[in-house]
Amino acid sequence: MNIERIQKIYDTIALDILNTVKIKRDGKLFDLIEIEVYLLNKGLGIDDTFIHKNEKQMNSEGIYFHYSGVDICRGGGDGSEIYCGILIRGISNTNETIYGPGKVAYDRSKGKQKRLIEAVKHEDTGYILADDTSAQGKINNVIFKLPRVNLGQTTIVKKEEDQVLVI
């Protein structure tokens, strides 16, 4: 599978989550404003080296707390061997914006106490990707993305003249 096809799969997952899920954090509803998608689906040839491979990430719903934050789980279901975790990096509502996976997931004033986090389904918001041709000339409901690294089958890091290149 080529990198463009893999990126399209990641884009589809991200758009689905951003369009249909809100986060309830300690009883307050938030919009997702920044996420990262992690996926392992050997049937499609996707072996993301950064997914934790926790059995919760095989669930098609729910959340998974880990050392750096909390994931929305979108795996293939029990026994599927398809792991998918969407790391919540930023959330916002009319009163508050929270950036940072650890800040979203944990109450640091109480050590590292887990916050009450729930993924809540909602009506499709109609977001589109900025590279979608239908996004031209629009600023509302447009999602900007950065490419994920390590989406290929292998990643090579080499040092040339004091510069690190990721290929």
Walkthrough of the structure:
- With 167 residues, the chain is mainly beta.
- The protein is built from two helices and 14 strands; from the N terminus they run αβββββββαβββββββ.
- 14% of the residues lie in helices and 39% in strands.
- Strand 8 (106-107) and strand 9 (113-114) form a beta hairpin.
- It starts with a helix and ends with a strand.
- Residues 152-167 have low confidence and may be disordered.
Radius of gyration: 17 Å
Given helix and strand content, the structural type is mainly beta
Mean pLDDT equals 81
- Major beta sheet summary: 8 strands, antiparallel
> Tally the helices: what do you get?
2
Helical content class: 10-25%
- Strand fraction: 35-45%
Run of helices and strands:
HEEEEEEEHEEEEEEE
Spans where pLDDT lies below 50 across 5 or more residues: 152-167
The domain count comes to 1
The separation of the N and C termini measures 17 Å
Q: Tell me the total number of β-strands.
A: 14
Global geometry: globular
Structural descriptors:
167 residues; mainly beta; single chain; two-stranded antiparallel sheet; 14% helix; eight-stranded antiparallel beta sheet; 2 helices; disordered C terminus
Give me the secondary-structure topology.
Layout: H1 3-20, E1 21-25, E2 28-41, E3 46-47, E4 63-66, E5 69-73, E6 82-92, E7 97-99, H2 101-105, E8 106-107, E9 113-114, E10 117-121, E11 128-129, E12 142-143, E13 157-160, E14 163-166
Parallel strand pairs: 11-12
Antiparallel strand pairs: 1-2, 1-10, 2-3, 2-6, 4-5, 5-6, 6-7, 8-9, 13-14
